[in-house]
Design a protein that fits this description.
Elements (H helix, E strand, L loop, with lengths): L3 H13 L3 E7 L3 E6 L5 H11 L13
Antiparallel strand pairs: 1-2
Length: about 60
């Protein structure tokens, strides 16, 4: 589960790579749909894993 300051941290990570949040859901779990530059994807994934102690995952889609 993400806490408020973790959500802010996720948003900060995305802004550092000029990514975009295209959707946000705050239900039992927080879910973001993101556009992340391909060249920064591994860095973002590492940062999210570190932030969440391995609980956050990135799922790739082919949506433009």
């Amino acid at each position: 589960m993400l806490y408020c300051n973790q959500v802010d941290d996720v948003l900060h990570i995305i802004s550092q790579v000029a990514g975009q949040v295209t959707e946000q859901e705050y239900l039992q779990q927080v879910r973001f749909s993101l556009l992340i530059p391909q060249a920064k994807l591994a860095w973002v994934e590492h940062k999210l894993q570190t932030l969440s102690a391995g609980k956050l995952t990135l799922l790739s889609t082919d949506k433009p």
